[in-house]
Amino acid sequence: MRVLKIIGSIALTLAALILAAYLGIYLWSLTMPEIPPVTLASAPNPAQDYADAMARFDALLAEERARGDIDEKCLPYVLTHGQRTERSIILFHGLTACPFQYHELAQLFYDAGYNVFVPRLPRHGYLDRTANALAELTAEELAAMMDVTADLAAGLGEEVTMAGLSLGGNVAAQGGQLRGDLRLAVPMSPALGFRFVPNLLTPALTRLILGLSPDIYIWWDPINKADFQAESGYPGFSLRALGEIYRLGLAVQALADKQPPAAQAQLVIDNWGDPAVNLGAIEALAVAWKRSGGAVATYRFPLLPWLPHDFISTDAVGANTDYTYPRLIELITTYP
Q1: pLDDT in tens, 204-260
Q2: Is 15 exposed, middle or buried (0-12, 13-18, 19+ CB in 10 A)?
Q3: pLDDT at residue number 30
Q4: Closest Cα to residue 30, out of 246, 194, 205, 195?
Q5: In the chain, helix, strand, coil percent, each to 5?
Q6: pLDDT score recorded for residue 11
Q7: Are 159 and 86 in contact (CB under 8 A)?
Q8: Could you tell me if residue 113 is left (phi over 0), alpha (psi between -120 and 50 degrees) or otherwise beta?
Q9: pLDDT of residue 278 exceeding 80
Q10: Given this model, what pLDDT does residue 115 score?
Q11: Which of 249, 237, 242, 240 is nearest to 210 (CA)?
Q12: Is 210:264 a contact under the CB 8 Å cutoff?
């Protein structure tokens, strides 16, 4: 009996501390400037054919190379069959990663008959991995990537799929909301909020993060810091950048509550063991889409085998791509 009382006392104390932390986030956020609204809109200018799409890609690649500050393996790339195919797919990478993140999965989609386009998202993939370029990232920059990539991919395939992980999942969700010429939008673990903060408090958390000064740099590996080596990305990220990603996510969710998704179908994928993103927010987005009549399917990787937030990168801690890749190929190629 005494043991039960002790356990109960500990549980109540923990609950009180958690509630106090949530209240602290909310109250502290009130001292920060309000979140600037993000206007989401689409102005399609699709490539008319394969030649048009490749001309656009060649111009993009030339522009990226001319910058001189992009890591060669982080340049955007296409895998094509030399002509327009029945289906094409856009693959958006995650926070701190770059197009190399998809070097194996992109090949699998190519082998399945797709033409594949893997763009570089703004302020990612720089040669100087520790310059904290992400501190200047904005939700508007990310939102602008949606139309230009969908336009290019329209010339690569008769039916276009737009998929993305985490940060890239937010852009894919935006595409699902706004682009009627997408066959399928696949947000994978979109970063709509933090796992351990209730969705109700995401606006407050976002406001707090964006209002903090100075910005905070978070290392993926606090021990090795800048020496942390990832195949496709930076050793850490700006907390302000995360706030901008949440800001885009809030705008997508607000639009989903007002109007149905434009894409022909949506496939929302997440991961039960994900320690990073808010599963409740992801569920709420899918529910909003369904409620307004969207064709929506969901899939959640089970708790076991445990998967990291990044279930795409081959070098992620806990990566199990022998498990995730076949499932992703099956889900995306067969739905709807």
Answers
A1: 999 999 999 999 999 999 998 888 878 779 999 999 999 999 999 999 999 999 999
A2: exposed
A3: 81
A4: 205
A5: 45, 15, 40
A6: 66
A7: yes
A8: left
A9: yes
A10: 99
A11: 240
A12: no
What domains can you pick out in the chain, each with its CATH number?
32-334 (3.40.50.1820)
User: How many CB atoms sit inside 10 A of residue 1's CB?
Assistant: 5
Interval 123-147 mean pLDDT: 96
The answer to whether the pTM exceeds 0.90 is yes
Average pLDDT, the chain: 95
Nearest-angstrom CA–CA distance, 193 and 242: 9
For residues 97 and 234, what is the distance between their CA atoms, to the nearest angstrom?
7
Q: Given this model, what pLDDT does residue 144 score?
A: 98
Helix ranges (DSSP H) in the chain:
2-29, 50-67, 105-111, 139-156, 167-178, 202-211, 239-256, 279-291, 321-334
What does the alpha-carbon distance between residue 316 and residue 309 come to, in Å, rounded to a whole number? 9
Using CA of residue 173, residue 229, residue 77, residue 241, what is the dihedral sign? positive
Query: Of 25-34, 101-110, 274-283, where does mean pLDDT reach its minimum?
Result: 25-34
Q: How far is the CA of 80 from the CAs of 56, 101, 223, 225, in angstroms? A: 14, 18, 41, 38
> What are 64's two structure tokens?
């990226």
Strand order through the sheet with 157-165: 77-79, 115-118, 85-92, 157-165, 182-188, 266-271, 296-301
Task: Please say if the pLDDT value at position 17 is more than 90.
Answer: no
Token pair recorded at residue 107: 């090949």
- The closest of 87, 99, 145, 93 to 264, measured between CA atoms, is 87
Task: Classify strands 182-188 and 217-219 as parallel, antiparallel or unpaired.
Answer: unpaired
